[in-house]
Amino acid sequence: VVLAVFLALGAPAALAEVDVAVLLDSPTDYSGEITVVGELIGDYGFRSDDFMWTQLNDDSYVTDPVLGGGELSGGNVGVAVRIPSEIAKQLDPPGGYRVRGPIVSATGIWKYHDADRGGESYLDVISVTVVDPGRDLPEHPNPVVLVAGLVLIAGALVSRTQTRRGRR
């Protein structure tokens, strides 16, 4: 039993997998390596220092985007990530309105108010594992909106015709 306790104490601690909301609620509780799972969104900002900056979101829209049939369920929740360019160049394009970005498991060092970066808070990524590749989100016309638009156009044409007849 004593040997097992000593071996357990000497074993490396498991990486903490942290939800973004929890990380943002208690940012000073995390130091060392952590893992965050989420969707890469926005733009990939490649910098001269061989790193790429973007946003990693961990909210309901990651697994259930609105264009994919999901419901509106609050705001976006994410953190900045700094990924080495050689890793970032292998990733699918980031998410946006009609694109669900790659869902990744990003492991790195949480930098809270990093003095070297002007007080910015971000995850300094060491490794990335793609959990689900990015994909296009099809957008289909909404029949109600289409009919309403046609009715408005028809109404405008009728109104214009009636106005011209009244002037003559």
Number of helical segments with 4 or more residues: 5
Rounded to an integer in angstroms, the radius of gyration calculated over CA atoms is 24 Å
What share of the residues does DSSP label as strand, in percent? 35-45%
Overall pLDDT level: 85
Largest sheet: 5 strands, mixed, barrel
Can you offer a commentary on this structure?
Helix content is 29%, strand content 35%. The protein has helices spanning 2-10, 20-25, 60-63, 85-88, 143-167; strands spanning 16-17, 33-46, 51-57, 78-84, 99-100, 103-114, 120-132, 135-136. A five-stranded mixed β-barrel has the order 2-3-4-7-6. A hairpin with a 4-residue loop joins strand 2 and strand 3 (51-57). The longest helix has 25 residues, at 143-167. Mean pLDDT is 85; it is low at 1-14.
How would you concisely characterize the structure shown here?
The protein is α+β, with helices and mostly antiparallel strands. It has helices spanning 2-10, 20-25, 60-63, 85-88, 143-167, and strands at residues 16-17, 33-46, 51-57, 78-84, 99-100, 103-114, 120-132, 135-136. The N and C termini lie far apart (104 Å).
